[in-house]
Amino acid sequence: FESKLPGLEPSIFGVMNRISLDAGALNLAQGFPDFGADPELIRLHSEALEEGYNQYAPMSGIYSLREAIAEKTETLYGASYHPETEVTVTAGATQALYTAIAATIRPGDEVIVFKPAYDHYEPSVKAHGGVPVLLQLQGPDFRIDWVAFDAALTASTRMVIINTPHNPSGTVLSREDMEMLETRLRGTNILVLSDEVYEHLVFDGQEHQSVARFPGLRERAFVCASFGKTFHITGWKTGYCLAPELLMQEFRKIHEFAIFCVSHPAQRALKTYLENPDHYLELNDFMQRKRDLFLEAVASSRFTFTPAAGTYFQLLGYQDISEAPDTEFAETLARDKGLAGIPISVFNRNRQDNRQLRFCFAKKDETLKRAGEILSQV
Ligand code: PMP
Ligand code: GLN
């Protein structure tokens, strides 16, 4: 039997979780909160179970939740998606991303991926015979080099994957970046896969530049979002995909046979919870305060940083502390000092190592202060 993904290495999240657990370390590695979800949301989920929403939901998601998603998108980004034909509820953003790739990528299709990149995209593309074309972005601002982008476009380019706010760098794409992409893709049949799971975590008064805001991108895009990331419920594995009708038809052909439908009680709870926009609008301030608390706690350390503009990840550089490769530094920090982070080289092209670790600041204040104490003693 020939592997479809030869040489695929174990996920860095699994690796760091295991080291962290063995060492009894504070875990700021994998991206999930260490505080509970809103009790109101938990209550809504329990009520849905009690009320008997325990059988299959409709294939594309319950209609009222799709309506709520469409309304939110229209209000925030001025884009109208029809709940019947252009919105599908998925098992997290992961299943939305995978399904969009499975529905559209054929052997030999080239897919542009900006590095560092979340580790999902490349294996999913390769599993369908696609060829990832990797464009490395450089810190501290991780801006897209449009000359390199133009040079990477070929007759085989089928898709561009973007992720804003960006995991792992914590940067966001600007309106100008989106317009540059829109201009370049005009008149082509290149698709866009837009991973916007951190859409509600954008700081310092900036606005999230959803693909949905740009008609020339929207018409060719799958937009993927995550209730897990937005509402601190990563374990519920719920999210959604938005796409124009023709693309969504193809998406649903895969969705139907990969999963058919998503947790029914969770969808009931989310539908009611979305009725109050404060539930997502207040997240920017909530998480910005966490970022600032974490940065204050590391201000007197020897780590270097540019404050994250979005997401719940902060990169810290240890160039002034050690010359060790980042995987080794991350392991030593977890085992000897009791704090786990993610080495960034695993997300880079050719494992480029800038001696930076990623830390998740979606944590209780006391966890962030403790992490700051540990980092200040390194
Ligand atoms: N995309 C990015 C950039 C992420 O960080 C994550 C969460 N780890 C996902 C997708 C997956 O989201 P979900 O948990 O909803 O599947
Ligand atoms: N998205 C999360 C992160 O970047 C982890 C998800 C996963 O474990 N695959 O940390």
Q: Short description, anyone?
A:
The protein has helices at 12-23, 39-50, 63-77, 92-104, 121-127, 146-152, 175-185, 215-218, 227-230, 245-258, 264-273, 278-281, 283-298, 326-337, 365-376, and strands at 26-27, 87-90, 110-115, 131-136, 157-163, 191-195, 221-226, 239-242, 313-317, 339-340, 342-343, 356-360.
Q: Which percent bin holds the helix content? A: 40-55%
> Briefly, what CATH class of the largest domain?
Alpha Beta
Q: So what's the overall shape?
A: globular
> What amount of the residues lies in strands?
5-15%
CATH superfamily of the largest domain: Type I PLP-dependent aspartate aminotransferase-like (Major domain)
The structural class is: alpha/beta
Kindly provide the radius of gyration, computed on alpha-carbon positions and rounded to a whole number of angstroms.
20 Å
The strand line-up of the biggest sheet is 2-8-7-6-5-3-4
Q: Within the CATH hierarchy, at the fold level, what is the topology of the largest domain?
A: Aspartate Aminotransferase, domain 2
Element order: H for helix, E for strand:
HEHHEHEHEHEHEHEHEHHHHEHEEEH
What does this structure look like?
- With 378 residues, the chain is α/β, with parallel strands linked by helices.
- The protein has 2 domains: 12-31 and 281-376, Aspartate Aminotransferase, domain 1; 39-275, 3-Layer(aba) Sandwich (Aspartate Aminotransferase, domain 2).
- The chain has 15 helices and 12 strands.
- It has helices at residues 12-23, 39-50, 63-77, 92-104, 121-127, 146-152, 175-185, 215-218, 227-230, 245-258, 264-273, 278-281, 283-298, 326-337, 365-376; strands at 26-27, 87-90, 110-115, 131-136, 157-163, 191-195, 221-226, 239-242, 313-317, 339-340, 342-343, 356-360.
- It has a 7-stranded mixed β-sheet with strand order 2-8-7-6-5-3-4, sandwiched between helices.
- β5, α7 (175-185) and β6 form a beta-alpha-beta unit.
- α2 (39-50) packs across α11 and α4 (92-104) crosses α10.
- The longest helix has 16 residues, at 283-298.
- The radius of gyration is 20 Å and the shape is globular.
- The mean pLDDT is 97.
- 4'-deoxy-4'-aminopyridoxal-5'-phosphate is lined by residues 31, 92-94, 118, 163, 167, 195, 197, 226, 228-229, 234, 239.
- Residues 26-371 form the Aminotransferase class I/classII large domain.
- InterPro entries: Aminotransferase_I/II_large, Kynurenine-oxoglutarate_AT, PyrdxlP-dep_Trfase, PyrdxlP-dep_Trfase_major, PyrdxlP-dep_Trfase_small.
- GO terms for molecular function: kynurenine-oxoglutarate transaminase activity; pyridoxal phosphate binding.
- Belongs to the class-I pyridoxal-phosphate-dependent aminotransferase family.
- This is Putative aminotransferase.
